[in-house]
Amino acid sequence: MRPSNLSWTLALALVVGPGGPARAREPAPLSLTVHMAEPGAAPEWLAAQVAWANRLMAPAGVAVEVTSTRPLPARHARLMTRADRDALARLRRRGTIDVFIVDHLEDVDEPGRARMGVHWRLRRDRQRRYVILSKTATPTVLAHELGHYFGNGHTDVVDNVMSYARSDPERMHFDEVQSGRIRRAARALVRAGTVRPVTRRPGPQRPAASGAAVGGAAASGGGGGGAASTGTTP
Q1: Looking at the predicted structure, is the pLDDT value of residue 114 above 80?
Q2: pTM (2 decimals)?
Q3: What are the backbone dihedrals phi and psi of residue 130, each rounded to the nearest 5 degrees, phi first?
Q4: Is 216 exposed, middle or buried (CB count within 10 Å of its CB: 0-12, 13-18, 19+)?
Q5: Which of its termini does the chain have fewer beta carbons within 10 Å around, N or C?
Q6: What does the pLDDT read at residue 207?
Q7: Domains of the chain: which residue ranges?
Q8: What one-character DSSP code corresponds to residue 153?
């Protein structure tokens, strides 16, 4: 059962807070393409996933932004096997991090157990990879799977994003080594053209009113907010 819209609104409010998203700096966000099975997850659910990921990756100077949402064919809504996960590779898009949101994500190592997320590498070509989230995923699962996407493994440290041991959402973090790895991996992906940053185009400058001094900034363009797995979220 999917959490109520109210619960996801509260989760989003927790991470955004009264002053807006917590950011150590304002990086150019990397493009996310979301492929979503119908009926889609609540907008508040997706917004909370992205907001938490950006808050937790802020010390690394890395952010993400949903630039496209695409329907996921019904045959991919329930992923039960490794072959089911591999089948998503043909839907990947160029220049973006693909995130597939499904109704059910089966644990391929422990059948009968559902997973909330996984960073998956195509078994025959491990350079082709993507994130899969279940619609039941809690708000920080995208951050955890992006941690894998950018090269981090699991840890036993309580409240580390890459750990399963949690005590307080407000204490969740990537450590300095993990943040450095995220930063270097993101830069390498951008240099290789594997993932593109979201570019902003300034809007047209309004002419100055008669008799007024010429100046002011142009309005900025807007934007929408074997096992091949390298990490899963239970």
Answers
A1: yes
A2: 0.77
A3: -170, 170
A4: exposed
A5: N
A6: 41
A7: 5-199
A8: -
